[in-house]
Amino acid sequence: LVTVASGGAIVMEGALQLKPVEAADITMTLGDGSQSTKIGYRIIGDKAYMNLGGDSWMAAPAEDAAATIDSLKPDKLLKGYATSDMDKVGEEDKNGIPSVHYQSTADPGVGSMLGLPTATWTIDTWLAKDGGFPVSALIVAEGKNEAGEAGSFSVSLDVTGVNDPNLEIEAPENVQEMPG
Question: Is-above-0.70 flag for pTM?
Answer without folding.
Answer: no
